[in-house]
Amino acid sequence: MSSPFEPFTPANGGRRAQEWDWREELYQAQDPWAQPQPQQQYQYQQPQYQQAEYQQPQYQYQQPVYEAPQQQYQAAYTPPEPRERKNRYKPALFGLVTALVLVTGWQAFRVETIIQNNNEIADTVNASKDRVEKLEKQQTSANFDSQGIAEDVLPSVFRVRAGEFTGTAFAVSEANGRTSLFTNFHVVEEIFGDGERQVALERGNTRITATIVKVDQEKDLALLRANREIKALGIAAGDVKSGQQVLVAGAPLGLEDSVTTGVISAFRNTEDGPTIQFDAPINPGNSGGPVVNSSREVVGIATAKARDAEGIGLAIPIEVACEALEACGNG
């Protein structure tokens, strides 16, 4: 059905009826110059959305702190009885101490042994030194101990009285209470030729009877034997050397216990056999006396001297006499 009425059209250009504003109309009525306000147009803008950024949350762990609850009360405390602790190091310590004691003892023993050996070596060295000094003293002319040699030699040297002649004899060996002595044959030649065999050995107040038991006329040697022990002189081994110092003991002109000194001048091989030449003074009565070196050993038997000359004496080597009379070392 159609309505007899037309739709109502508002006078303001088609706007729908709105609420009436009396203040606006009043204002417009009062301002005749007012221009109509343009109608505001609204434009729709599409909203812009910003994508949200997600950040990884960071977690920081903190160690919780625990506090022990404070003891509100203090109970009576009784310490436990101490227990005996076993020291596991005690055996090792004991072993170490024992080892140290043993090592110390061994070292002390070694030190004492070394000291003792050193003392023995020192004694040996000193003895050797004394021996060397003694040998040097005996072999050096400046230190030739003629006094000491004489003191050792003279008790074994005697004056021989054979009838009207005198000479010298010395002991070369002793055994079984008997002593063998050497002298020259020309000392006893007169009584031996008369068949007598007894001679007298004199020294100071001592007088000993001796017997002629063997002679070697060619070598001018005679062996006497006395029934009494007399200290024998040593026999030198080896050849004599020129310049070697010697002492000659005897009874020149019957003067017992006389000594002279000199050197070996030479060792000669003559028609009469080996001969030692020396320069120690000798005289009649020295015949048969020993020629002794610095070691107090007999090197020869004084026999003769050169006529009308001084410092030339002759002696028979002792090894020749021992071989000829077979007496050295045998009583």
From TrEMBL:
<feature type="compositionally biased region" description="Basic and acidic residues">
    <location>
        <begin position="16"/>
        <end position="26"/>
    </location>
</feature>
<dbReference type="Pfam" id="PF13365">
    <property type="entry name" value="Trypsin_2"/>
</dbReference>
<feature type="compositionally biased region" description="Low complexity">
    <location>
        <begin position="27"/>
        <end position="49"/>
    </location>
</feature>
<keyword id="KW-0378">Hydrolase</keyword>
<dbReference type="GO" id="GO:0004252">
    <property type="term" value="F:serine-type endopeptidase activity"/>
</dbReference>
<dbReference type="InterPro" id="IPR009003">
    <property type="entry name" value="Peptidase_S1_PA"/>
</dbReference>
<dbReference type="GO" id="GO:0006508">
    <property type="term" value="P:proteolysis"/>
</dbReference>
<dbReference type="InterPro" id="IPR001940">
    <property type="entry name" value="Peptidase_S1C"/>
</dbReference>
<protein>
    <submittedName>
        <fullName>Putative serine protease PepD</fullName>
    </submittedName>
</protein>
<keyword id="KW-0645">Protease</keyword>
<feature type="region of interest" description="Disordered">
    <location>
        <begin position="1"/>
        <end position="49"/>
    </location>
</feature>
